[in-house]
Each structure stands twice: as structure tokens, then as C-alpha cells.
Amino acid sequence: MAKDTNNIDRQPTPPIGWPIVWHRNSKKLSDPLSGTVTGIEDVGKLVITVFPPNGMQEHKKGVLHVSNKVHSRPASSHNIRNGAWDFIDGLTPKHSYKMSDEREVRKEAARKELEALNARVAAERLERESKPDLEAV
What we know:
Blueprint: E1 11-12, E2 19-23, E3 33-42, E4 45-51, E5 58-65, H1 77-82, E6 84-87, E7 97-98, H2 101-130
Parallel strand pairs: 5-6
Antiparallel strand pairs: 1-7, 2-3, 2-6, 3-4, 4-5
């Protein structure tokens, strides 16, 4: 399944077990309900359990953060079906953001390439310094 390229790579992603608020139909003005993260489908895309005050718990899959661009389309079937989640005011985990897997892979490849380049430059410098300087004679 292809990733949604309309969304930024960096989306808030709390750990499993983290308490959140859930907004029905993704409208932040709607009455928020208490929820808990029970799974992570992808970066910023959660599986949650919602606890209505006088009802049975509801399980929601594919719930995106309120800041996700998909919520700018109010009639979106995604918004109607999944709603949106947000952090409880004042309660944000220390490491609440995750990068997309593709971006993490690119960052790791660039880091390894830089390490290899630094090692090659250091080896060349050491080789030059160990050879006698024939021009100085």
C-alpha cells in the first residue's frame, strides 16, 4: 500500500498505552471522548480504544492526528468513519514524533555514506603523512 504523499513525513505518534482524546468526525469542536492507543498502524496512524461515558468501548483503526491534512476535507469518508485523535492538554510523551520508515532509511544511508567518506579521507591523510616529502630535499 502506497503512503499518502499529501501528508508530511513527521506525524505525532504516541506509544501504545498512551491516553489520548478522540474527536468524532475529526471535528475538534465536537465533544472529545477519552481513548487509549492500542496499536500503531503507521506513522501518526493509530489503533485506539474509545471510552464513551455511558456506553460500550469502541475500537477505531486508522485514526489520524487532528493536524493531518486529510481532515481539511470535512466530508471525507475517512473523517466520518475514523474521527481524529489529539493529545490530552499538558500530556505529551517525551518522544511523540516518528519519521516515516522511508525517511529513516534515507537518513541512515546518508549517515553511513558520510562515515565511509570520513574514513576514506582519514586514510588518505594518514597515507600522505607517512610518505617522505621528496620535494623538500
